[in-house]
Amino acid sequence: MSDDIRTKMGLRPVINVSGTMTSLGASIVVPEAIEAMAAILPQFVEINDLQRKASAVIARLTGGEAGFVTASCSAGISLAVAGTITGPDLLAIERLPETSTPKNEVLVQMGHMVSYGAPVDQSIRLAGGKVVMIGQATSTHRYHMENAITDRTAAAVYVVSHHVVDYGLLNLKEFVEIAHAKGVPVIVDAASEYDLRLFLEQGADIALYSGHKFLGGPTSGIVAGKKELVRNAFLQNMGIGRGMKVGKESIFGVMAALEAWEKRDHVGIRERETGYLNLWKETLSDRPGITALIEPDPTNNPLDRMRVIVSPQEAHITAWDLAARLRSGPTPIIVRDHEVEHHYFYLDPCNLHPGQERIVAARLAEELDKARASNEVIATPFEDLSRHRFDGALRWPD
Ligand SMILES: *Cc1c(COP(=O)(O)O)cnc(C)c1O
């Protein structure tokens, strides 16, 4: 542990059972990408030519006609939307986010208006888009979308995420069918999805991915799809895209991560992760007040997680206090806790270095034993946590 670069810097050596979170450093970058980045950093290259090479790799893996690399999937949303508003008009590109045409409306289902760390709609507004929400939180019908499309509609954005409402909304095929019937391009935010082909196959004109999530690339976004729309998005690098630029290392790093993805032993990795889940299930079995369930990923990525349900009266601790205790101490373990007020959190096995699964098991057992030995139920009122949620950020850098 002592030669851990984080401990040397005075940073906590966190173990990530939360998922690919920007706030934790996204993912473990694959060795192929690290080597590629190191190799290109000392060299000069003509960036647009490097992006042409990236386009070919992205096209091959996604089945799209073209592609490029940008700073993040969030940047990809802004650039793709901007491209549908400006087309290849270089002056319009410079003028964004002010738009010179009334054709700047972007349709989004209300149940897709989520935050991935920042609100989806903001990435659209940054590009000069005017968000037009369709449907209600848990329902969108065809008539909502059909009636929302006008001469002012530039694009329709579809979000694939465990955060979105997963019932009652239009699925991608219907969404595409309705948009295309009126000539509206569809942009899919597939930031966190494993399947690099599915959304374009289902008719999306542009599919967006994060380079730093399952792909294990550097922090980046991938824009893929129809050549003309991808080009119009790419041209935004002379406008709003400047602040979202990536260097040669990220472009080349993503190319390497994509090529490594093609060769990755996906079955072997899944087996290893299943081993972790089984170990944790064993650790948690027969513990009072704890139920451990292995559940599939909600957006059908080939990945299972463990749902740990905590009954405070029997476990003598709430799910959120358990999560907080795991997060403290010399080996902080960060669990996936966005629904923790429902008395459960998840353990995500896909960002662990081998051996860390045993530390997770040991810390779970330790904290649960301690809680059981406590005479009182450890129960911080949940409101106290939510009230103080942003205290740290608001004190930054102190
Ligand atoms: C992670 C995520 C984003 C943001 O991706 P970045 O590449 O980190 O900007 C956007 N949308 C969804 C659905 C995500 O999961």
TrEMBL record:
<dbReference type="InterPro" id="IPR015424">
    <property type="entry name" value="PyrdxlP-dep_Trfase"/>
</dbReference>
<keyword id="KW-0663">Pyridoxal phosphate</keyword>
<dbReference type="InterPro" id="IPR018319">
    <property type="entry name" value="SelA-like"/>
</dbReference>
<protein>
    <submittedName>
        <fullName>Aminotransferase class V-fold PLP-dependent enzyme</fullName>
    </submittedName>
</protein>
<dbReference type="InterPro" id="IPR015421">
    <property type="entry name" value="PyrdxlP-dep_Trfase_major"/>
</dbReference>
<keyword id="KW-0808">Transferase</keyword>
<comment type="similarity">
    <text>Belongs to the SelA family.</text>
</comment>
<dbReference type="GO" id="GO:0008483">
    <property type="term" value="F:transaminase activity"/>
</dbReference>
<keyword id="KW-0032">Aminotransferase</keyword>
<dbReference type="Pfam" id="PF03841">
    <property type="entry name" value="SelA"/>
</dbReference>
